[in-house]
Amino acid sequence: MLDVKKVTKIFNPRTVNEKIALHNVSLKLEKGDFLTLIGGNGSGKSTLLNCIAGVYPVDNGSIIIDGKDVTNLNEYKRATVLGRVFQDPVMGTASNMGIEENLALALRRGQRRGLSWGISNKEREEYRELLTTLGLGLENRLGIKVGMLSGGQRQALTLLMATIKKPKLLLLDEHAAALDPKTAQKVLKLSDRIIKENNLTTLMVTHNMRDAIRHGNRLMMMYEGQIILDIRGKEKQKLTVEDLLVRFGAVSGEEFAEDSTLLS
Amino acid sequence: MLQILMGALSLGLLWAIITIGVYITYRILAIADLTVEGSIVMGAAIAAFAITNGINAYLAILLAFLGGLGAGLITGLLHTKLKIPSLLAGILTMIALYSINLRIMGRANISLLRVDTAYTVFENMGLNHMSSVIVLGLIFVGSVTGILYWFFGTEIGCAIRATGDNPQMARAQGINTNTTIILGLMISNGLVAIGGALIAQSQSFADVQMGIGSIVIGLASVIIGEVLFGKRNFYVRLLSLAMGAITYRIIIAVVLRLGMPANDLKLFTAITVAVALSLPVFRSYLVPIKKSFKRGE
């Protein structure tokens, strides 16, 4: 479903600030795979996700989604087959537009937008049903501006928007990191449920080891722009935080503990 | 006094169309588009040139609209394709339009005194000039408001609104934000050019200098409308723009009446807009406690 082939991304090339964010990274996801991608600050995990989404062009390599080479496609064109949830709850929705208007924008992803109404009455019923599944009471507040919602509510709504068109690939960029722990767990649980129900191929970036272990069927760890661990199947199911720390030390030759964000 | 109010109403209605144009870029797209200063003159220039060459006044307004669309297109392309910051892109088009407008008119000023204008139809029905301007102004403001209310509810209209609100989100939803920005700038400047064409005909001349300060007047009208008439929903907002433009004209008429020299008008307008735009800053000094309450801290 996703095939990343030897992707290299260099920020500020040929300057003193040159940084090789991704170095010959390759990864392959089969349909229905749920990969959690973990790494410290600056390890390249978010850069990789943004390269897949088309936010940054890559310097080398190619990205193939569902058999189609999207390496040179614009961000908005790739959006047709992607669903994305961002770290910042504000990023995924339009604050000054209503809940239903945001959902309607998402429902038209990948379609030609014409001069028919931006939202139909028939859709409204669908939205009401969809929102009911969130259990947040949003189904009775379809017209309310998204800016009035809490961070957790906005992330839940963004998740609905990202998955409403059954994307070929769902990209979650630390989407629970900005929320309080309780809300974060709720949002992660919701993500799990939606991914399972729709059998979505998913790539979730996180810096939380427990979350990375608890969710998904595959786990990869990044370090200095490269994938240094690829754990799947039974091995993934049995994985513990301690295992992960030991294996990180063995591969990188460094103590993991220095990066406190990873231990949260 | 009634005469002054009627004068302010007639001029305000024509400026309402320009105000709606400014609103589209400033509020919906979140761009301060200085192209306006050139496209208002362009509308006047095209209409004046066309009318003095025997073209029907309404057809002339249509041509002015097309010219405005073109001006918006240029700014849009400079901004989106060539990555020039929007403010600078608008300034470049504005400056270029100064020469282009002179070329269209052939000279700095065209008189429209002895030709049939868009208002002539109403004057022939027995209305005086000012009433004719008010009637036609109402027709234009009403139709523009109605059309835009419909348009910004359509799929494309929603995409333009989303682009101004959150471009990152818009792209993630498959919206080509370059296209929506260009489209918004075109519609905005098209409307401004219509306003320019109508103003030139009402004052019976087109002048290459008539655009100076128009962006500030437009912004002042937008802000006055929002402050006085609220922004509950989109329909109210559109109507508040017209009300803001008219109120601005009444304020100007009153301060002139009170003895302010006409030469100080632009200074007065600039100060008004500066104060209105800085209100949130003052407010944050005055009510920090109330705000923190709201956030639930």
Task: List its traits.
heterodimer, A: 264 residues, alpha/beta, Rossmann fold, 4-stranded antiparallel beta sheet, 9 helices, globular, B: 297 residues, mainly alpha, ABC transporter involved in vitamin B12 uptake, BtuC, 2 domains, two-stranded antiparallel sheet, 77% helix, 2% strand
Outline the secondary-structure elements:
The complex is a heterodimer of chains A (264) and B (297).
Chain A: E1 2-11, E2 19-29, E3 34-39, H1 45-53, E4 60-65, E5 68-69, H2 75-78, E6 82-85, H3 99-107, H4 121-132, H5 151-163, E7 169-173, H6 181-198, E8 202-206, H7 209-214, E9 218-223, E10 226-232, H8 233-238, H9 241-252
Parallel strand pairs in A: 3-8, 3-9, 6-7, 7-8
Antiparallel strand pairs in A: 1-2, 1-4, 4-5, 9-10
Chain B: H1 2-28, H2 36-52, H3 57-80, H4 86-105, E1 109-111, H5 120-124, H6 129-151, H7 155-165, H8 167-172, H9 177-203, E2 205-207, H10 214-229, H11 234-257, H12 265-286, H13 288-295
Antiparallel strand pairs in B: 1-2
Helix pairs in contact in B: 1-6, 1-9, 1-10, 1-11, 2-3, 2-4, 2-9, 3-4, 3-9, 6-11, 7-9, 10-11, 10-12
